Amino acid sequence: MPAKGVLVAVTADVVIAGGGVIGTAIAWRAAAAGLDVVLADPAHGDAASLVAAGMLAPVSEALFGEGALLRVNLLALARFPSFAAELEQVTGHRVGLRREGTLAVAYDAGDYAALTRLTAFRRSAGLEAEELDSRACRKLESFLTPDVHGGVLFPGDWSVDNRRYVAALREAAASAGVRVVRDRVTAVLTAGGADGADGAGGADARVRGVALAEGGEIGSGRVVVAAGSWSGAVRGLPAGLRSAVRPVKGQLLRLRHPDGMPPVLTHTIRATVRGADVYLVPRADGEVIVGATQEERGPDLTVTAGAVHDLLHDAMSVLPVTSELILAETCAGLRPGTPDNGPIVGEAGPGAPGGLLLATGHYRNGILMSAATADASVACLTGRAPAPEWEPFGPGRFLTGEGAR
Amino acid sequence: MPAKGVLVAVTADVVIAGGGVIGTAIAWRAAAAGLDVVLADPAHGDAASLVAAGMLAPVSEALFGEGALLRVNLLALARFPSFAAELEQVTGHRVGLRREGTLAVAYDAGDYAALTRLTAFRRSAGLEAEELDSRACRKLESFLTPDVHGGVLFPGDWSVDNRRYVAALREAAASAGVRVVRDRVTAVLTAGGADGADGAGGADARVRGVALAEGGEIGSGRVVVAAGSWSGAVRGLPAGLRSAVRPVKGQLLRLRHPDGMPPVLTHTIRATVRGADVYLVPRADGEVIVGATQEERGPDLTVTAGAVHDLLHDAMSVLPVTSELILAETCAGLRPGTPDNGPIVGEAGPGAPGGLLLATGHYRNGILMSAATADASVACLTGRAPAPEWEPFGPGRFLTGEGAR
């Protein structure tokens, strides 16, 4: 912790710790709502959101038993187009929203049966889906391997060019007056309680700002922790929240069409190859994203030979023409995972310092949830209630028994 | 061609067109021999030699019917250590010479029989080789796949860190007084004959310098064309020489050990996987090079998904632990191939302009042959005869019938 009495050089209505897609979306909307916002991030614009595929896929991501997550994902998807449209209008940049849908394909009768069961569940949740035989799949996507057994088209799954989207968010935030401090928030500072190294203050404590890695402080009565997989490194958060977020490594590939090759893909394709999920996401500018591994390796950002091999192998199994594409980039990012796969959004709540908000743990859905998370966070910051879909995803669920600490 | 009468701003005893490993080695030795040398290259230090694996492998590269090539490769190998030692002494930098040898492995009895026949041929040429069974192979390299059927150790095959080596050559050349012009040689200029766009001058013509892409000229009575796969783009060369060199694309991978992992490899490994040759070359600094494709695609430098997949697949087949290494870099280079796989080194000869030398077409062996090529070129430049091993590799073999043009 910096020594007490350090000069407080900057003050703001709200400090946002973390400048990834979530922090930047909140910063933009909070500033647009009239708040004086400082965003702190040592590498603003160099986060997991740049490694993402940009799938807006509440449907094909929804699994059995994750009904609440599906509902908040659907809220997020419904909000996304108007949010993106305003972003495009404010910045003058296109963010590459595509609405062709996802085609999930199966290689054999067993895979197809599993896909059909999932489809029934999704239909029961009111989601659109269309079963297709092998021929129909290949009519939709002519480069698909002839080995495909059948598939399901989910027209409600969209995608966005995550890099364009994040760049536009940064520009919109700057235009709205958000100030960026290129430093890392090491601790949430509180008043009216203890500021111990791991303390969350007392029940009576309130946020008074944040401490920065380079020794400065930012004074603010509201702090939003949107630090993704690094959220647990912020001291002053209740212990239950610090341990709730873990990094889940994802490696993915960015492929490009060689000059003169027509697009090999229109829809996002998902498949299970040798038990591993693979997806291919086409971009309007000719890129094809292939993802992604899910690895529990802590904060490791290396690109490994085995992962690149497997991604290429699986992509070529689904779409053999992939072998002709240019391997433009290999990259790794850290998704903020949580024990129940759900995000952590809202007031930290009873037992945590007053004025502390969380917006983290978005795991595989940070891009999708960014617009709705910004809405929910700005609602909290301006004294309104977030949409009811967020109720199951408050920080309180990880705070059991900490109220009295 | 630049207009006649353009200002000749630079003059030299020798102009070398091309700053890859060959051009730079010649430049260093020519300057060390007292000549005033200008080296012209728009991207000095960004050539095929940086993409190479740095194998010094005259033995495992030698094929039936290439006896003359084997002899010049052996000359080159014999010369390499003293050349490298002088380079290290002059620059103070290590170039990473390794002398562990190459272990060629076979996966089945058929592969092994082919390897044995090749070994007999190499022994008949006086080369050392040691047959090893599967267990002995794995004793030498403990991470080798248990599927290996047997192998042959070629202790005469060494390797060098090509990037360190080329960087040291550049530094040595600069220290010896070589001047670098960052521009592309578009034409060899002659006097006493026609300077037509495709003309090689008359039989009486002599070199008077070179024309540069940005419009200047360098005046010089000796020109060495060492432009690798781009040699054919230099106007003023006899047509037979211009068409003799073609680019052969090679893609390779640079892998790295993660922190704390002990080296997975000591020897260079070669194998044939699904009919394709793959090699893994360990570096003292923890890098492992995996190569290489051989593609006839013209001057295409893209890295393709299919090639990276195949290289990773083949490397993991030979050495499964490869999957745990970091994929640090994927790259593509253009080898200067010739119709008979041999280099083109020496005076351009009868029918070509006097004073014109070639040192190109080194195909897969540019690093290996660099020292001996520098010796041969400097011999020509100073009026001495190159070693007799070079005799079959003069430019004259591609000039048939052009004498009278």
Please give a handful of descriptors for the protein shown.
homodimer; 405 residues; alpha/beta; eight-stranded mixed β-sheet; 9 helices; disordered N terminus
Order of helices and strands of chain A: EHEHEHEHEHEEHEEEEHEEEEHEEEH
Taken from the alpha-carbon principal axes, the silhouette of chain A is globular
Largest sheet of chain A: 8 strands, mixed
- Largest interface by Cβ-Cβ < 8 Å: A-B, 21 and 21 residues
* Structural class category of chain A: alpha/beta
- Give me the count of strands of chain A: 18
| Weakly predicted, low-confidence segments of chain A | 1-5, 195-200
Q: Cα-atom Rg of chain A, whole angstroms?
A: 22 Å
End-to-end separation of chain A in angstroms reads: 20 Å
- Overall helicity of chain A: 25-40%
Strand content of chain A: 25-35%
Oligomeric status of the shown chains? homodimer
Query: Total number of helical segments of chain A?
Result: 9
Q: Taking all residues together, what is the mean pLDDT of chain A?
A: 90
